[in-house]
């Protein structure tokens, strides 16, 4: 009967964090669990706000521009406020970088243990069409000499202690890494809890999908144009079928598909975006960390590992190629990189 089919011992995100904390000596202080609680609250709140937006007629321009000059929508403002308030209230965050704010935010919590970087609503140009958008987050542990300044986050990607994104799609998903694999959760809106639905997610080794804004191809350098040409028309001796093209234009959704199905997602530099479009601290770094932890790879145009890079400024950009190991290797081989 139906009572028997109900799993009465589900693993919620809070339970998952507490259990993994007990299992490992690191993060044993409980600070990380507290921060995770504030993060999941922000994700639930933003999720609800986006889902209600159409009904309460929030869609429209707020009349301001963000740090990189994009048009900013009311939901971007709300998402940013929700996120910043949740991080301030956690008491565990000293330094915060938000895509929506030019300046670094410093909270006067001297005992706080973390620095957080986020894109509160990534892919927001898609919101009016009901396409999936998300929140992307990277976390650094403060060092003992932290002064509550930009140097708390202008660090190499390998120093991140955790990264996650929430995707507000047909369901709300949360994919998280703390450096030992990737675990994925789905929001049960009745319980108000994220439930573990993708334990220890491993991405496919390869998959013939490429995901890139091909409208930029006239601005790409020749080697990049040649590479995608090759995916579409594999040389006869390679005996492989052409790749399929999938591009949502919302990084969280494109990376989410890449994690689950495999393939390659790229935003290369071009003549218009000389340093790429995506931001290192809260787009490239956290996604690279997640993809690597799921068994994939993430590099820039030159084939350098994303996690080996260090930003000079909080809103620095980077080119990015991420996805299934064999597909990224194909690109690396094409440009003659040793990585
Ligand atoms: P945003 O942070 O202003 O939303 O911009 C980032 C988004 C990514 O989600 C997506 O991968 C990319 O911009 C798409 O850019 P384009 O429209 O140039 O293809
Ligand atoms: Mg963004």
If you had to describe this structure to a student in words, what would you say it looks like?
By secondary structure, this protein is of the alpha+beta class. Helix content is 29%, strand content 24%. It has helices at residues 13-23, 31-53, 74-90, 222-232, 251-261, 280-293, 325-334, and strands at residues 61-65, 71-73, 93-98, 105-106, 114-122, 133-141, 160-168, 172-177, 182-188, 193-198, 209-211, 244-245, 264-267, 278-279, 297-299, 317-318, 320-323. The protein has an 8-stranded mixed beta sheet with strand order 4-3-5-6-7-8-9-10, with helices on both faces. A 5-stranded mixed beta sheet has the order 12-11-13-17-15, sandwiched between helices. Strands 1-2 form a two-stranded antiparallel ribbon. The N and C termini lie far apart (55 Å). The chain binds 2,5-anhydro-1,6-di-O-phosphono-D-mannitol (AHM) and magnesium ion. Magnesium ion binds at residues 99, 119, 122, 283. Magnesium ion is lined by residues 99, 119, 122, 283. Belongs to the FBPase class 1 family. GO terms for molecular function: fructose 1,6-bisphosphate 1-phosphatase activity; metal ion binding. This is Fructose-1,6-bisphosphatase. Pathway: Carbohydrate biosynthesis.
Which terms would index this structure?
eight-stranded mixed β-sheet, 17 strands, 339 residues, binds 2,5-anhydro-1,6-di-O-phosphono-D-mannitol, binds magnesium ion, globular, alpha+beta
């Amino acid at each position: 009967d139906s009572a028997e089919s109900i799993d009465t011992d589900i693993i919620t995100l809070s339970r998952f964090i507490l259990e993994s904390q007990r299992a490992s000596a690191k993060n044993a202080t409980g600070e990380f669990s507290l921060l995770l609680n504030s993060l999941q609250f922000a994700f639930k709140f933003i999720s609800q706000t986006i889902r209600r937006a159409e009904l309460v007629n929030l869609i429209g321009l707020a009349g301001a521009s963000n740090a990189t000059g994009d048009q900013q929508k009311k939901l971007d403002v709300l998402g940013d406020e929700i996120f910043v308030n949740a991080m301030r209230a956690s008491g565990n965050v000293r330094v915060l970088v938000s895509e929506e704010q030019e300046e670094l935010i410093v909270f006067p919590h001297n005992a706080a243990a973390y620095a957080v970087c986020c894109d509160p609503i990534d892919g927001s140009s898609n919101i009016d069409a009901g396409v999936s958008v998300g929140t992307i987050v990277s976390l650094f542990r403060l060092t003992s000499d932290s002064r509550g300044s930009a140097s708390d986050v202008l660090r190499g990607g390998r120093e991140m202690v955790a990264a996650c994104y929430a995707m507000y799609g047909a369901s709300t998903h949360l994919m998280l890494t703390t450096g030992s694999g990737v675990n994925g959760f789905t929001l049960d809106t009745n319980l108000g809890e994220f439930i573990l639905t993708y334990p220890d997610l491993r991405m496919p080794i390869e998959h013939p999908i490429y995901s890139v804004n091909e409208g930029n191809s006239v601005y790409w350098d020749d080697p990049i144009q040649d590479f995608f040409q090759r995916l579409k028309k594999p040389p006869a001796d390679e005996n492989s079928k052409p790749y399929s093209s999938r591009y949502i234009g919302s990084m969280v959704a494109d990376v989410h598909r890449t994690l689950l199905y495999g393939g390659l997602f790229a935003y290369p530099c071009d003549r218009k975006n000389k340093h790429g479009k995506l931001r290192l601290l809260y787009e490239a770094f956290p996604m690279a960390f997640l993809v690597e932890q799921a068994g994939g790879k993430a590099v820039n145009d030159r084939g350098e590992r994303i996690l080996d890079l260090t930003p000079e400024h909080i809103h620095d950009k980077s080119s990015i190629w991420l996805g299934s190991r064999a597909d990224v290797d194909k690109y690396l081989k094409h440009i003659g990189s040793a990585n």
